[in-house]
Write a structure and sequence with these properties.
The complex is a heterodimer of chains A (412) and B (778). Chain A is mainly β. Helices cover 12% and strands 32% of the residues of chain A. Chain A contains six helices and 25 strands. The longest helix of chain A is centred in the C-terminal third of the chain and has 19 residues. The chains are: A mainly beta (412), B alpha+beta (778). Chain B: Keywords: DNA-binding, Transcription, Transcription regulation.
């Protein structure tokens, strides 16, 4: 079997948006495997630990007065009077891809199997071989308007170290976000544009935080998905029917994700890797880290979906050894439903109640279609054997996951 | 019914297109198909008034809409949102910017092309919406686009505002809004006719004005042709000719309108006290006998009979949607008449000692069997006399019954002395009369004593010696045993019931007919299997049940109504081959709340109660803040299995017996421990702490002790999530000594928030905090 390698370089990444207009950086046949490097968009929170000495990361993040390697960051405007920067940070994730799957057409399903995932070591001689991540409690977090201690409001960045031997993550230090001036002279009083290098002379590091606390590692990719059909440039922040920023820690080694194809080739991208995250991703981010993953891609043609668990699927579906999970969103397909101003409109629609309703509907359809249950059987089962959890409350299009154990059906 | 949501997500691929066409057909529209290649997606929210007015918002992929051919009804109102659209009339395209109003007669030939996705508000008004008042036919008019100014603007704004509030308007509010919108549309349709050049349209406009004049003067005894003609400046002859053209004479039309308006007033419950003769007089009938005769000839029933039927219909109208807790209107009534619990006449198991004993050396063991004297049904109360008093550290075994045993009395009640005692209910005797926190005389809905405002059979209460407000009660579950059937045919086997009930999350949106409906599924519990599981035995649709006192329960609105064999039709091939792993737990573990004498057992809150968290099983502990002397612990609502969310309204409800170790933590001793500052139920399992968030953490305090029902109307997962967040933050800061920033960082990286339930009035989100996080801190 051919195994491809897709390194993260300025030519293989796109920042803050999905786009059907991007040329694929790699084209695979169904059944092929690829090792894909991803780099976290929060690496500049601690340049020394997460970028310095790593040529690819250095080049991707390069931004001087004269040259900014990746100018566009986000699906927003790229010229005119810019408030935050090109792309305006309307979408923040640094994604590797897109990868086209030969023969994929709208209506097909692309299955992505995560075979393995491992962290990208620091290349700075001072930290050689160690793994670091960053967790900002940001302005888009659930806590931001609900803080009790001064100063209010505030953003706090916590830098973590991942111990692969112990499979746990420990906090190293934290700092209060201070206004950062980017090389173009734009001041960022809050975390409002991705990849701005934090000048460590302007911050005060607080050591000894979260002492004695070990967070079990849950290596996963926060953002994986296909290009949507509705618009040319789509923010990476709100997850949607072709996947994207799902922020579910179960999208990890051993998981298979199924995505509906919206444009020819599918155009798969991934990034936004996390060392760990809780259900809800409360503060706005997980422990953001650079990971490399090994993936296998399988194309399921529309004509072959009948009678499989993919029949009628028009939303992302997770399968692992134990469960199937569907993802409910506040707005099922916000690109189609909210009109031209969808990127801003979705911010007003965040609601767990609607996400719960969406998850209920998707799971009902899944059980009725693929397990051939009647509506009443599906509803009874959802009450007694399906677990609904809060996926995230920070990605504009909030999420509720509904999971059902596969073992229930062993006797059918 | 309320607003109807639609989303194509509910349907599988091939059914989607048809379901969407059905939605459009409700508006008198059809789609010519979506643009090929894009994933078909459509959503809608619409609401229908009793007179057929339908208002809604549509959003879907790019497509073309055209009217379903029909000759009746007012022109359709379409309001493109966000994107401009193209109106094609007789092959002529016209671009309509968002915000302008399209008025399009149904019989005309037109299309609306939504090239960048369909997003529009639609108002559809049938001819019948005006109760026989005529709308002049406008078949020949082409569609017209209005700028948002003047009347079109007012109509557009009304439609926009109404659509925004569509699912929040109460039934009477919605009826009023729908009727106003219909009137505005009628007025605008007149304009369509006026501005049209052809003579048939101007005739229609004139007719419309004549109809309006008649409507205004309908109360006077003699509306003459001469007066009406004069008012419009036309000759009597011409007026008669105009009417002949509609196939109806002037005098016949006037009489028809008078009778229709009289029907309307007689059917209005608000006017039930107005004498029939006065209604007749209002519409120009001075002789009420003559009126009654005409009325009967026209409608086939006398005015008095119409009133009686309408009163019956209104009475039942409240039923099919169901209501938990007090109706909002009844709160006033409740406040005026403070409910008190009845004097407690139940027996104690052992005499309650007045003075504290010396602390015993070994924990004492107690046994609380279940029977009518040992339960309170559907409510918690600080006024209940404890059945037993125990010391801190004692072990108590408590038998509990599920209130759903009556769903299959043969399997779950018969032959079981305890269950028979509690469920005993004949024409003359009901062992446990009060079920719920409502009035004993059932004066709110008439369902039965207590009104079913609260449904759980709770065993207890148990007093804990020395417990005082401010202390914390630790309830540790040592064991849970299911209660086997005692019926000879099923002896030794264990059964449970799960009801997809009207308070379930799914109830507002069924896919298949009939809807809505309630379905009961009976499960057998295989507790002794290597991997214990439940599997469905049979299921039946709830059919109206008449209880032994003669009250008919159209819905599952009162607990413990025995389902009589023969009244329902069990289906046996249900969930074949599906095995549901057991998660035995108690849905309800409560101490008595302090705020009110009688508290509905359904909404959980700070005192515990109906937590419905399956993690509260064997080996788990719940810590509850004590708020009345003695704590008054009660247990019930046993579940064999439940998923996070409890979507359909119930778990697998199954009678079980629990063994608990109860430890009292005095306020003075909890400082510096995990229990310091505990104001909510905290669950501990061997691996985790689970913090319980609610939409309204103390709804009794928030809405006032008498406002117990408001919580049902105001629950949301967003609020519950916020409460859970705040509780975890406080827990980490208070008991783990973290700073706020550390607590928030940890929550994002390592705390899992899950949905406990969306069916218990006060919705729940819990947070799971793994003990593994703190290896070096213990």
């Amino acid at each position: 079997m051919t195994k491809h390698h897709l390194p993260a370089t300025p030519d293989t990444v796109h920042w803050g948006y999905f786009s059907k207009t991007l040329e694929p950086v790699l084209t695979l046949k169904s059944g092929e495997r690829a090792v894909i490097e991803t780099i976290t968009h929060h690496a500049n929170d601690d340049y020394e630990r997460m970028i310095a000495g790593d040529p690819a990361a250095e080049e991707i993040f390069h931004w001087s007065k004269d040259r900014k390697t990746l100018r566009r960051r986000g699906a927003g405007p790229t010229d005119g009077a810019l408030t935050y920067g090109s792309g305006e940070g309307l979408g923040v994730h640094l994604l590797t891809g897109p990868i086209a799957i030969e023969g994929a057409e709208p209506g097909d399903i692309i299955e992505v199997r995560i075979l393995d995932a491992w962290p990208r070591p620091s290349a700075n001689p001072a930290y050689q071989g160690r793994f670091f991540g960053s967790n900002p409690a940001a302005n888009w977090g659930f806590q931001y308007k609900d803080l009790i201690e001064e100063p209010k409001p505030r953003e706090v960045v916590t830098i973590y170290e991942l111990d692969m031997g112990e499979a746990s993550v420990k906090a190293l230090y934290s700092y209060l976000w201070t206004p950062q001036t980017d090389p173009d002279g734009i001041v960022h009083p809050t975390i409002d544009y991705p990849g701005v290098r934090v000048d460590h002379d302007t911050i005060v590091k607080k050591e000894g935080i979260l002492s004695g606390i070990k967070v079990p590692a849950r290596l996963h990719f926060g953002t994986m998905g296909l290009a949507p059909a509705e618009a040319d440039f789509v923010s990476t922040i709100p997850p949607n029917y072709t996947g994207g920023n799902m922020d579910d820690w179960r999208i990890a080694r051993g998981a298979r994700m199924y995505y509906p194809v919206a444009v020819p080739g599918g155009l798969f991208s991934c990034g936004d890797a996390h060392a760990s995250q809780g259900d809800s991703e409360l503060s706005g981010t997980a422990i953001e880290i650079s990971l490399t993953g090994e993936f296998e891609f399988i194309l399921h043609k529309k004509a072959d979906l009948g009678g499989t668990i993919l029949e009628g699927l028009n939303h992302p579906l997770l399968e692992n050894e134990d469960v199937w999970s569907v993802y409910g969103f506040s707005v099922t397909n916000y690109l189609a439903e909210l009109g031209p101003d969808h990127q801003h409109e979705i911010l007003k629609r965040s609601s767990l109640d609607n996400a719960m309703r969406d998850a209920f509907r998707k799971l009902r359809r899944f059980l009725m279609t693929t397990q051939k249950l009647s509506e009443d059987e599906a509803i009874s089962l959802m009450s007694v054997a399906v677990d609904f959890a809060v996926t995230q409350v920070v990605d504009a299009n909030w999420g509720v996951t509904g999971s059902i154990r596969k073992s229930l059906f062993a006797g059918r | 019914m309320n607003a109807q949501p639609f989303t194509s997500e509910s349907y599988s691929g091939d059914a989607r297109e048809r379901a969407w066409q059905d939605v459009l057909a409700g508006f008198g529209l059809q789609s010519l198909g979506v643009r090929a290649g894009s994933p078909a997606h459509a959503t809608a929210l619409s609401r229908l008034s009793s007179l057929g007015v339908r208002l809604g918002t549509l959003s879907a992929d790019a497509q073309v809409l055209r009217p379903l051919p029909t000759r009746t009804g007012l022109p359709l109102l379409l309001l493109p949102v966000g994107n401009s659209t193209v109106l094609v009339t007789g092959g002529e395209p016209q671009i309509v910017p968002a915000g302008q109003v399209i008025l399009a007669p149904r019989a005309a030939d037109w299309q609306v092309q939504f090239q960048r996705g369909l997003r529009a508000l639609v108002l559809s008004v049938p001819a019948e919406a005006f109760r026989g008042r005529k709308a002049a036919p406008l078949a020949a008019c082409p569609p017209r686009v209005f700028e948002a100014d003047g009347l079109p603007d007012i109509l557009a704004r009304t439609v926009q505002a109404a659509t925004t509030a569509l699912d929040r308007l109460s039934e009477p509010e919605w009826e009023a809004v729908a009727q106003s919108a219909a009137e505005l549309l009628l007025a605008l349709s007149g304009e369509l006719a006026t501005t049209s050049a052809d003579s048939s349209s101007s005739r229609a406009a004139l007719l419309q004005r004549l109809y309006a004049t008649i409507e205004r003067s309908i109360g006077s005894e003699d509306v003459s042709i001469a007066d009406v003609a004069q008012a419009e400046g036309i000759s009597e002859r011409y007026l008669q000719k105009l009417f002949e053209g509609t196939g109806e004479s002037f005098s016949h039309y006037v009489r028809e309108r008078r009778l229709q308006r009289a029907w309307h007033d007689l059917a209005n419950p608000a006017e039930a006290a107005v004498p029939i003769s006065e209604v007749a007089y209002r519409y120009g009938f001075a002789d009420s006998a003559h009126f009654s005769r005409l009325f009967r000839e026209r409608f086939g029933l006398p005015p008095r009979e119409l009133r009686r039927r309408e009163a019956d219909r209104q009475g039942q109208g409240a039923l099919p949607s169901g209501q938990r807790g007090w109706p909002q209107e009844a709160l006033v009534q409740l406040r005026a008449r403070q409910t008190k619990s009845e004097p407690d006449t139940r027996r104690s198991v052992v005499p309650v000692s007045g003075e504290p004993d010396a602390t015993p050396q070994t924990p004492a063991r107690h046994y609380l069997p279940v029977h009518a004297q040992h339960v309170h049904w559907g409510y918690f109360s600080r006024s209940l006399k404890p059945l037993i008093e125990i010391a801190s550290g004692d072990i108590v075994t408590v038998e509990t019954l599920t209130q759903h045993a009556s769903d299959d009395p043969e399997r779950m009640i018969e032959g079981d002395a305890g269950a028979e005692s509690v469920f005993h209910w004949t024409r003359t005797a009901k062992a446990v009369d009060q079920r719920g926190a409502g009035p004993l005389d059932a004066s709110v809905f008439g369902r039965g004593a207590g009104e079913g405002f609260g449904v759980h059979i709770c065993t207890g209460p148990v007093a804990v010696r020395g417990a005082q407000p401010g202390d914390v009660l630790e309830v540790h579950i040592l064991d849970i045993e299911p209660r086997p059937s005692r019926h000879p045919a099923h002896a030794g086997r264990v059964f449970g019931s799960s009801v997809a009930a009207w308070w379930g999350f799914h109830y507002s949106e069924f896919l298949s007919e009939p809807h809505p409906r309630e379905t009961v599924t009976i499960y057998e519990i295989m507790a002794d299997a290597d991997e214990p599981y439940a599997q469905a035995v049979h299921a039946y649709r709830w059919e109206p049940q008449t209880d032994p006192f003669g009250v008919r329960h159209v819905l599952y609105d009162y607990p413990g109504v025995p389902v009589r064999p023969g009244t329902v039709t069990p289906q046996t091939r249900v969930l074949e081959g599906v095995r549901i792993p057991l998660r035995p737990h108690f849905g309800v573990i409560a101490v008595a709340p302090r705020e009110a004498d009688l508290v509905d057992s359904v909404p959980p809150a700070y005192f515990g109660g109906n937590l419905d968290n399956w993690r509260l099983g064997k080996g788990a502990t719940v810590y509850l803040p004590v708020s009345v002397p003695g704590a008054l612990l009660s247990v019930g609502d046993p579940h064999a299995a439940q998923g996070d969310g409890e979507l359909s309204g119930t778990a697998i409800e199954c009678s079980m017996t629990g063994t608990f170790r109860v430890v009292l933590h005095k306020k003075a001793d909890v400082a510096g421990t995990l229990l310091a500052d505990l104001t909510y139920p905290l669950i501990e399992t061997p691996d985790d702490w689970i913090l319980t968030g609610f939409s309204h953490p103390n709804y009794l305090a928030e809405f006032g002790a008498d406002g117990q029902s408001e919580v049902y109307a105001k629950s949301s997962l967003d609020l519950a999530m916020r409460d859970a967040f705040r509780k975890v933050r406080r827990f980490l800061m208070t008991t783990k000594g973290l700073s706020e920033d550390e607590a928030i960082a940890l929550m994002s990286a390592a705390v899992d928030f899950g949905i406990t339930q969306v069916v218990d009035g006060n919705w729940g989100v819990h947070a799971i905090l793994s003990k593994r996080l703190f290896p070096d801190r213990e």
